[in-house]
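hey so i finally got around to running the thing on that chain from the lab meeting. sorry it took forever, my laptop kept dying and i had to restart like 3 times. anyway pasting the input first so we r on the same page abt which one it is
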Amino acid sequence: MKMPVAKCLVDSYELKANEDLGEGWFRLDIHAPEMASKIRAGQFVQVRVDAGDTLLIRRPFSVYDLNPAPGADATELSLLVQNVGPGTHAMQELRPGDPVDLMGPLGRPMPRPDLAADGVLFLVGGGIGVAPLYLYCRELVSEGSTLDHRVLLGARSSSLLIGLEAFEKLGTTTHCATDDGSDGYSGNVIDLLSSQLDGLDESTPVAGIGCGPHGMNQALLDLAIGRDLHFWISLENYMPCGFGACFGCVIPTPEGQEPRYRRVCVEGPCFPVNELPSRL
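ok and heres what got predicted. didnt touch it at all, straight out
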């Protein structure tokens, strides 16, 4: 059994900034050079919230950004957080100078599909799922990649399109979809993806990575399997430990394959769609 604990760091780091992004969202910037320099897009950290005896289990968060740039020179990591419960509320109360207890990096980095020069990589995100996709784009920019990559973001309304401006500032081709039609495509982000795919030449090589809430991930899985697309989905399963010991985040193999369970925190969190069960 693979247990990656020895490869990760566990320490207290200094919070440099806590920026309110509106609608209950905020960004934590943490000075953690030893950890930041090892992180790749798609990996996550487990955060321990010091709030007495009520919040004993660490919370997993995908790393949103690395500064001054991804790679060996990174000294600061950023987390994108939404205040949805006691743990995230306690995190929102943190102030610059406060210690933040982190364990990481954990999980596998997001893949780099082997696409031809004329191929298109779609990055599909919703909600907190935009965090690893933004870091993925930052890595591509830092590497000087010429890959045609397109970000598709979905939300219920324009006020909930977290991260849109950040992607645009990178120069990444970015499209959005809102359920109420208040910005971009009127409908959900999977319908937007379908429309984008229909607009491509049939010979265009396509790959993609998606990360979002359960409903979005399920719809993306159905679309990718139905169209026989080379896609991956980053799952957001509940991860009590984060390093494979508790088996609290397991997923089964697809129907028809030899039954076994994979730990999302160790074998994932990003899986090819053909390795996922039909119902997530």
